[in-house]
Amino acid sequence: MSKFQELSSLIWSVADDVLRGLFKPHEYGDVILPFVILRRLDCVIEPRKDEIYALFEEYKTKLEDPAPVIKSRINAEFYTTSK
After folding, report:
1. CA-to-CA distance for 52 and 74, rounded, in angstroms?
2. Apex 14 CA angle, 8 and 20, nearest 5
3. Confidence check: pLDDT of 1 > 60
4. Is 56 inside a domain boundary?
């Protein structure tokens, strides 16, 4: 559990350094939490990112919405097509 606490402390100390003046300390969570979640989602799909992008490129002109095909092929509820 100490690894979690170290990581948490690091995140909040960076927030204090970077966000000071832009946001009040009680607003840091409103800024940091969405980015932590986005990073986690990115890490989850990282091993299949090339496959997802290839599927998107293949079906983006063939289908109006390629999302159902991509989701079923990668067996996931979310994906991103950004590099």
Report:
1. 7
2. 125
3. no
4. yes
Cβ pair 15, 31 in contact under 8 A: yes
Vertex 21, ends 17 and 22: CA angle to 5°? 95
User: Please, are residues 54 and 82 in contact by the beta-carbon 8 Å criterion?
Assistant: no
Please state, in angstroms and rounded to a whole number, the distance separating the CA atoms of residues 53 and 58: 9
Q: Where do runs of H (alpha helix) occur along 1-65?
A: 2-19, 28-45, 49-59
Q: In the chain, how many domains are there?
A: 1
Structural element, H or E, at residue 70: helix 67-74
User: Which residues constitute the domain of residue 56?
Assistant: 2-74
pLDDT digits (tens, 9 = 90+) for 2-55: 888 888 888 778 777 777 778 787 887 888 888 889 889 989 899 999 999 999
